[in-house]
Amino acid sequence: MTQTNSRAAAHPRQAKHHGLSAKTLRRLDRASGRLASASVVAMEQRLPWFTRLPADQRASVLMITQTGAAGFVDWLRDSQEALKLTSEAFRSAPQELSRWVSLRQAVGLVRMAIEVFEDELPEFAATDAERAALIEGILRYGREIAFATANSYAAAAEARGAWDARLEALVVDGIVRGDAEESVLSRAAALGWDPAARATVFAGRPSSDDPPAVVFEVRRIAARLTRPVLLSVQGSRLIVVAGGPEEGLGKLAVAFGEGPVVAGPTVESLGDAHRSAAEALSGLRAVVGWPEAPRPVRSADLLPERALSGDAEAERLLIEEIAQPLEDAGSTVLRTVEAYLESGGVLETCAKTLFVHPNTVRYRLRRATELTGRNPTDPRDALVLRIALMVGRLARARGLW
């Protein structure tokens, strides 16, 4: 038996599937390095972006192409193992490539290599049948390589997505816990967050028990609103950090599940977002005290409920924003607000109590509104004013004000 026949016997399936002799396969084996180098030369000549890659990255492409060329000969010998062999040959390539070459560019590299192989392979064929088998083989092999590359890129993207999700959860958790500003900002920067963007924290219930579905829905709505977001599902609550100006942020509430949604104050940067988070979560705990609260409701509009639930920050804000300005305005304004609230909001009764004209009461109430942003004639604002004055009296009695 000749050497050729011995090789054919060693690979009984090759003649059946590809009709290639052992001699042709040996020649391809020896020429695989030359074919790979020719492919890289073609890439440099015909792909402008490829020439801009650093030398070490172009060398990596050469090595990957050489591996693929050698794998092609193995694939020809046993096409039944095509998927296994191509996956093995490119096992580590896409993970490395994906750091600096997009999927579109990677497929372009594969296409370029296949074109070079198509041009060069006919010279290795001993017969017209072998020539046809080689051309058909490289086209099928190229398709397998393209699919393997796409699958590997998808797996790499999923891995990066999982890592980004964990990193994002760490950022949101750090904001909620008030971690060091630099650690939060550096992690957020890795996720593409603009450090100069304003931030508002929302808190509520997730729309589903499936966290990935919740994340998808929030991102879909945020993309429609062209808002950057960081989010985390923490058990029965969803925390969303939205970037950008305050206007229009209320539309994010539709991304939450049933129940109240509380928005903290809009702060100047992510470094101050812990304050917004603290107020949003405090409001979420206290909003049960206001069943008719709007959705979303600002944490600043829940100051009475937050103060009654023991939030020291809410007490401080009630004093600084309402009680203190009224006291500083003089006894007449403060006394008028107190009398108006005690009269049940009846203007004439208040005027009789103070021995003044009703128009004087109206003037003083307008002045109180200018000072505090709360209108005593509005039922909700009247409650806020009443609680603020009460908190101020208690703080003064304890020597805290």
Write the layout of secondary structure elements.
Blueprint: H1 3-10, H2 12-17, H3 22-46, H4 48-51, H5 55-77, H6 82-89, H7 93-97, H8 103-120, H9 128-177, H10 181-190, E1 199-204, H11 211-224, E2 229-234, E3 237-243, E4 262-263, H12 273-286, E5 297-298, H13 303-308, H14 312-328, H15 331-342, H16 347-354, H17 358-372, H18 379-397
Parallel strand pairs: 4-5
Antiparallel strand pairs: 1-3, 1-4, 2-3
Characteristic key phrases:
401 residues, mainly alpha, Globin-like, Alpha-Beta Plaits, Arc Repressor Mutant, subunit A, 3 domains, five-stranded mixed beta sheet, 18 helices, 5 strands, 65% helix, rod-shaped, disordered N terminus
Can you characterise this structure?
The chain is mainly alpha-helical and 401 residues long. It has 3 domains: 3-159, Globin-like, CATH 1.10.490; 182-306, Alpha-Beta Plaits, CATH 3.30.70; 312-397, Orthogonal Bundle (Arc Repressor Mutant, subunit A). Helix content is 65%, strand content 6%. It has 18 helices and 5 strands. Strands 2-3-1-4-5 form a 5-stranded mixed β-sheet, with helices on both faces. The chain is rod-shaped. It starts with a helix and ends with a helix. The model is unreliable at 1-17 (pLDDT under 50).
